[in-house]
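The records we work with from here on pair a chain with its fold. Taken together, the tokens spell out the fold as the letters spell out the chain. To see the layout at work, look at the sequence and tokens printed below.
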Amino acid sequence: MLAAYLAPIAFVYYKYKHSDTATRSISAIITSTEPFVTFASASATPDPHDNAPHPPSLTVFQTRHFIALCMLIMAGFTVLYEYQRQRWSLAAIIVLLCGIFGVIFIPEQNPSHYIFAAAAFFAIVGFMCGHTFNHHHTTAHDIHDTLRLLLYAQFLFTVVTIIGVIQDAEIFVAEALFLLNFAVFYLYLHFHTFSSPPS
């Protein structure tokens, strides 16, 4: 699951650092239709009446397909993992995954893209809120305080991202911090609460 999560993160970071143009958001990278891997196709049928030379037809594996494949692998492991926990937690993850795939395959120019992005953002915030308050009385104070601190940071990153979208400004850094904070929260939950048998 971690490998499937880290691979697209590493790729997005690489594209951000080596892009010839300014990258305004993570969506601009993960929705890209530019080739990721190109395969020569042997299935093309040449026209017998056309004597002009033609390059072999190509089947293109796009950047968004690579991101989606990684997310699909991660989704499988995550759903199986969350199924052992609270059902509301699983529901939040399913909404998040639907939002992610919507963001990947719907271009930024389409208004529906932002509906799926909002669903993903609020599913993450809802997941973090639910677990923070759920562990208020069931875990040690230092663990709950850490969860609460990460949740407050997530509120901040959410507000900054929303303001950036409204102002049509670059939001790549805010989005990256938002996702990084969620990853830290999720891993912290695993090692400090999920690893313990559910009560």
Notes: The helical segments are 2-18, 27-30, 63-82, 87-105, 111-134, 141-166, 172-194. The first helix runs from residue 2 to 18. The CA atoms of residues 15 and 21 lie 10 Å apart. DSSP finds seven helices and two strands in the chain.
